[in-house]
Write a structure and sequence with these properties.
By secondary structure, the protein is an alpha+beta fold. It has two helices and six strands. 21% of the residues lie in helices and 36% in strands. Strand 2 and strand 3 form a beta hairpin. The chain starts with a strand and ends with a strand. 12% of the residues are buried.
């Protein structure tokens, strides 16, 4: 299973509840602003991007990055490294 960063730039006034539900169904971790960590069996970032495109409007953007090694530091000492 591969870990991916998914960054969404949601520009429209669309209903994004299906996008949020999809992240939830994949046990994604909302890490910062509109960036999520998702573990997936997808074989490439482009396949995962294509899957999530159905949940956003045509004016929105989505970026999917294969995350081999990562770390984050959030306020109040909430840090994480290399896991979802």
């Amino acid at each position: 299973m591969t870990t991916y960063f998914i960054k969404c730039d949601l520009c429209g006034k669309a209903d994004y509840s299906s996008l949020i539900k999809e992240f939830g169904s994949r046990n994604a971790e909302h890490i910062i602003n509109s960036t999520w960590l998702v573990k997936s069996n997808e074989t490439s970032a482009s396949k995962l991007r294509n899957h999530f495109r159905q949940f956003i409007s045509e004016n929105d953007s989505i970026l999917v990055i294969n995350a081999n090694d990562w770390a984050i530091c959030r306020p109040h000492g909430d840090s994480n490294q290399g896991s979802v």
